Amino acid sequence: MHSLHGTTEGDGGWLLRIRPSSRTGRLSAREHEIALHLAQGLGYREVAQCTGLAPATVRNHLRGIHAKLDIGNRAALVTAMRGRPARSNAAMLRSATPWAAGT
Known about the structure:
5 helices
């Protein structure tokens, strides 16, 4: 879901922007996928294996996730992602986390 935000500009005009209603809606599909993995307790290397990325790339995405969600640690990420379903490839995400099989 999205919402419309308006601000005034210096010349007296208005600037209207459509923004995601939730903070996590600001994440790209890849950032969302990585955030879900990290929030579920996977480490950088495990997320890299699941996504086909290098661990350094996962860390770079995490910096962007922290900036977009205005958070600074993994505990805040877990809280932000709580109850958020995967946007796509839900079955792939579940199968990529073998530790979650018993849940």
